[in-house]
């Protein structure tokens, strides 16, 4: 019997089938944030499942675990499960994409998963299996350490410098990234961008930091310190030691070297694991009800 894990994120979706820790199949589909597009998420899940079942027999599937971005806030699990059951007689469970990442990063054991991509959230799992959540409140109220947070800090720094009659080194970075010619136009342009496009400007800030722009480095460092503070908070609330496993997922936490170095300084005793690629493999550590 094999298992299928689906990592349904805001920009793309990945389905992987595993049997005895060996990946058999990997398929990709369109985005799947259920809070932003419930119908599209369901459609893409069914598409990627069909792609898997075109290669593997349905009768030998022991379960499907689907981790969906936005499901913790928007709900919709029952609708997804019902849609799958209308076509396939297979056990199905729906969790948040953060829960799927926790399974993949901690291999079912205790520790912390910190996800920082477009947004951010921190989850801690106790040895009992009970979980603690810190953050994950979205761009209006949180998303500390995320790409959105980095860009927000960069614009705040630029504006504060102008208020003081100065020009911050971050200003030309933001002007270029927004394809404008002036700091006021850059600010105006930022308000025209949706959340994802605004967060996407973090790439320009990260690139500037890598080439020695001290203001950009300060933005990335401050965001990393904010995420580290939430990780400490999660460890404390879960009663876990500082030497716990801390898995890092998302485009910022797992892939930005400066960001990672700050986390290493802030969490010197932790076993940091940088997760790359899909978290669909978390299905291997999930226990389907019998």
From TrEMBL:
Q: Which InterPro entries match?
A: ATPase_BadF, ATPase_NBD, Euk-type_GlcNAc_Kinase
Q: Where is the ATPase BadF/BadG/BcrA/BcrD type domain?
A: 4-256
Listed Pfam families: BcrAD_BadFG (PF01869)
Return the SUPFAM superfamilies for the record. Actin-like ATPase domain
Top-down, what is the taxonomic lineage of the species of origin? Answer: Bacteria, Bacillati, Bacillota, Bacilli, Lactobacillales
Q: Which organism is it from?
A: Schleiferilactobacillus shenzhenensis LY-73
Spell out the protein name for this chain: ATPase BadF/BadG/BcrA/BcrD type domain-containing protein
